[in-house]
UniProtKB/TrEMBL annotation:
<keyword id="KW-0460">Magnesium</keyword>
<dbReference type="InterPro" id="IPR037171">
    <property type="entry name" value="NagB/RpiA_transferase-like"/>
</dbReference>
<dbReference type="GO" id="GO:0030272">
    <property type="term" value="F:5-formyltetrahydrofolate cyclo-ligase activity"/>
</dbReference>
<dbReference type="Pfam" id="PF01812">
    <property type="entry name" value="5-FTHF_cyc-lig"/>
</dbReference>
<keyword id="KW-0479">Metal-binding</keyword>
<comment type="similarity">
    <text>Belongs to the 5-formyltetrahydrofolate cyclo-ligase family.</text>
</comment>
<keyword id="KW-0436">Ligase</keyword>
<protein>
    <recommendedName>
        <fullName>5-formyltetrahydrofolate cyclo-ligase</fullName>
        <ecNumber>6.3.3.2</ecNumber>
    </recommendedName>
</protein>
<dbReference type="InterPro" id="IPR024185">
    <property type="entry name" value="FTHF_cligase-like_sf"/>
</dbReference>
<keyword id="KW-0547">Nucleotide-binding</keyword>
<keyword id="KW-0067">ATP-binding</keyword>
<dbReference type="InterPro" id="IPR002698">
    <property type="entry name" value="FTHF_cligase"/>
</dbReference>
Amino acid sequence: MNNIVTSRTELRQLIRHRRQQLNPSQQHQAAQALAGRFSQWPELSDCQHIALYLSNDSELDTWPLIHALWQQQKNIYLPLLHPFTAGHLIFQHFLPNTPMRSNQFGIPEPDWSCPDLIPLSELDLIVTPLVAFDEQGNRLGMGGGFYDRTLAGFSARTAAGSPRLVGIAHDCQQVERIPVEAWDVPLPAICTPARFFLL
Ligand SMILES: Nc1nc2c(c(=O)[nH]1)N(C=O)[C@@H](CNc1ccc(C(=O)N[C@@H](CCC(=O)O)C(=O)O)cc1)CN2
Ligand SMILES: Nc1ncnc2c1ncn2[C@@H]1O[C@H](COP(=O)(O)OP(=O)(O)OP(=O)(O)O)[C@@H](O)[C@H]1O
């Protein structure tokens, strides 16, 4: 993009507005294309426990991907806003019949159930939402710092162990350069309907 916009707040507004312009047919095609591309990613064969999220605010619809991964017998987990540690996320097992509630942002999340929580270290892969990304793997989110706080201290590019990280987004969410802050956790992979960026 022609990047005169540098502030994170402005960039967030611009790209959120841009993805809100996608019509239902474009959204549908994007979600199908992403599910097809992502579910054939060879590295998935090593991943049994996968954190995803339910889409909000014109994010790429994750339902086709969730169904494709369930068909591959993967265990899917969703984020819950941590009930005690503000600004952090925890992850809970998600099945078609899991009871759900809406969180403070109106996003459905599983009803809290201790036995179904999974420690971060036992997840093989975390698929993160994002508002904007660049080709260096930098990620700008909704502005709550939830994923950055939850993943802090964990260097996605160098960590030998679990979990791996991958961002998913519409192609129109790519920008030339994200103004990076010290706490930002970069993504080693980003999947869009058109391509897979591996950093
Ligand atoms: N689908 C999805 N789920 C997610 C995230 C996400 O980015 N996408 N999150 C990623 O961290 C966490 C929630 N973070 C969020 C942060 C802000 C807003 C939001 O809509 N903010 C409104 C203001 C709402 C308010 O103040 O009550 C806005 O900016 O318009 C939504 C989710 C966990 N779950
Ligand atoms: N590791 C951290 N420790 C403490 N505060 C943090 C951390 N990471 C982010 N924050 C705080 O969270 C706020 C929002 O951060 P930022 O704008 O990077 O969120 P985001 O990446 O857009 O959101 P998200 O990660 O939820 O998708 C900032 O004020 C930042 O100071």
